[in-house]
Amino acid sequence: APPSKLDFFCKLGYGKQDVCKVLQSLGQEALEDDVLKELIRMGSKPQAPESRAQPAPPRLVARGSGSAPDVPPWLHEDGGDSSGHLRPIVIDGSNVAMSHGNKEVFSCWGIRLAVDWFRQRGHTYVKVFVPSWRKEPPRQDSPIADQHILAELEKQSVLVYTPSRKVKGKRVVCYDDRYIVKVAYEKDGVIVSNDHYRDLQNENPEWKWFIEQRLLMYSFVSNRFMPPDDPLGRHGPTLNNFLSKKPVPPEPKWQPCPYGKKCTYGNKCKFYHPERPHQAQLSVADELRAKTKASSSLGTAEARPRCAP
């Protein structure tokens, strides 16, 4: 297999044996996109890249607890969250860079802002996918700003280039969106993009659900990366719960009714009424009946003759 193609799939986590097997069946000149489709069809799972695999440090085990449970080494090596409660992050580099560059310039600084935002939150698995032709010198029709940031993120094993090549003078670009969705799906993580990936939703029903539930949109406000506090809408999870594997249920917060005692909604009112004991959401008519019954019973009790002791 060509070294660049083999290295690329090993960087994604696939074993050499699986990649070579697919290349033997499809041919040495097969496009990377076709190789990835075949790997997906075979059900091949990412493994630890051999070139970067390092022995895990010894773990402390409490006395009497026995040996520590076996954890796949590629989870630790590939940047699995040490805290265990934060989801992996997969960033659509092209979407973020063009958004920061106001859809006119491929701004690599926008990618750096997004990566730093997730790092500051404690996420240790952050991957950015960018087409490899962005390494080329910028042209007038596709300007690039702060291109050196791409090389820095690649050295930190954060940025991954999706393959592209030229055939008879024409650039053949692999579909980077498929890499983004596939890696995020396998890692059970979050996709950071303002793209809806509608074509991929129609291609795979499992991906459709995943994209609908795990897509994190964002905005840039004065060079500040800002995802929404409610990624799935007003009635969905908070941003902290959305980015967490173990969401924390919110504490109930009762908002007082703005109408107070003048409220006419009765038991249909969704706000808190401190004047109603035990939060008994009675209608106005029921409250009047209860008051009338109480006053009538009090009057009859006073009208009775008192017995001598």
TrEMBL record:
Residue ranges occupied by any C3H1-type domain in the UniProt entry: 251-276
Top-level taxon in the UniProt lineage: Eukaryota
InterPro entries found in the cross-reference section: Rege-1_UBA-like, RNase_Zc3h12_NYN, ZC3H12/N4BP1_RNase_Reg, Znf_CCCH
GO annotations of cellular component type: cytoplasmic ribonucleoprotein granule; nucleus
Keywords: Endonuclease, Hydrolase, Magnesium, Metal-binding, Nuclease, Zinc, Zinc-finger
Chain ranges of zinc fingers (C3H1-type): 251-276
Cofactor: Mg(2+)
Natural source organism: Nothocercus nigrocapillus
MF GO annotations: hydrolase activity; mRNA binding; RNA endonuclease activity; zinc ion binding
Name of the protein: ZC12D ribonuclease
Segments of this protein annotated with the region Disordered: 44-81
Gene name of the record: Zc3h12d
Record's keyword annotation contains Hydrolase: yes
Similarity comment text for this entry: Belongs to the ZC3H12 family.
Keyword Kinase: no
